[in-house]
Amino acid sequence: MRIFTILLFFSFSFYGFTQNSYSKEFSLQSDNDLYTSIYRDRYYTNGLFLTFRTVVESDTTNLIKKIHQFQVGHMMFTPFKATLQFSNSHDRPFAGYLYGAYSLNRFYKSQNMFSTEIQLGVIGPRAKSQELQNFMHSIYNYPEATGWKYQIQNAMAVNLNAKYLKYFPKVSSSIFDVSSYNSLKIGTIFTSLSTGIYSRIGLKKLQKFSNSVAFNSNINKTSQSFSESFIFIKPMLTYAFYDATIQGSFLNETSPVTFSINPLYFSLELGYRFYKNRFQYGYTYYFHTKKLKSVRVTKTNTYGSIYIGYYFN
Fold it and tell me: How many angstroms separate the CA atoms of 46 and 209, rounded?
């Protein structure tokens, strides 16, 4: 949690500056289990996401704005050790997922949000996860990852995702709010249904969801002046019907190591977001229970996420 403390301290030093709104954003998000423990390198071990967003403001009865989002993402999964030599030692498969995505995020005057997304990509050796992990290991002088020869095999990736946020005004205030958060994924990589709660605790007055870094909606055509600083918590319950990074793709059933999924699991996100003067910063701590049926997999796992966004016109 040291990163969380540094970001929190860093945010207060910017409160005296002025700021104008911007209509576009580039962001970089990095996920890694090293952000929660320097000794852990397992399961969902690395993620990298480059995103561009632009806003289209709306004057319809219910809709405030639409945000178009374009993203390139890469996700990497490994067993508890990347240096395993034999397939019977694995407690989950090696897997890499590379994709491009387009999302349309709709923000309503009721402060509800609805998002739809399509992802197109590939799972397997074509995602180049082995090469990426060995490059990262060479930087930190870690041993070469030798178990990728047993990874999930090549298959096409097509995923359709949707998210819906329902704001609860009766239990919310200017420095605290609560919303329900629901997510649906259907495709050749992930198929799942999730439901939970999203809550912000403001270190200053909270912005509305239609203009908040909580959902990257703080891009506008018109000039505005504001900053944000808040802690958020998001407990979720997920029922997974299918996960190709664990089971292998049904489009290619030749993967040498696969496991059955543990369909019902709990996850928790706890993080901090700050926005001022063209920049957004964030750190999120992720916790989740067991996702697959393997006797050697730990009952829980954690990883961290660092977010940096830059705004412009």
Answer: 29
The residue with tokens 């397992």 is 42
- Of 73, 79, 81, nearest to 95 (Cα)? 79
- Domains of the chain (ranges; CATH) run 2-312 (2.40.128.140)
- Structure tokens belonging to residue 68: 């178009």
Backbone angles phi, psi at 265, to 5 degrees: -145, 160
* Distance of alpha carbon 313 from the chain centroid: 25
The reported pTM is: 0.92
**CA-CA distances (angstroms) from residue 77 to 42, 100, 129, 133, 218?**
7, 18, 9, 10, 32
Q: Which residues contact 162 (CB under 8 A, 6 or more apart)?
A: 114, 115, 116, 117, 183, 184
220-241 confidence digits (pLDDT tens): 988 776 899 999 999 999 999 9
Q: What is the pLDDT of residues 123-179, one digit of tens each?
A: 999 999 999 999 988 888 888 888 999 999 999 999 999 999 999 999 999 999 999
**How many angstroms separate the CA atoms of 134 and 142, rounded?**
9
Secondary structure (H, E, C), 252-305: CCCCCCCCCECCEEEEEEEEEEEEECCEEEEEEEEEEECCECCCCCCCEEEEEE
- Token readout for 275 is 């926005």
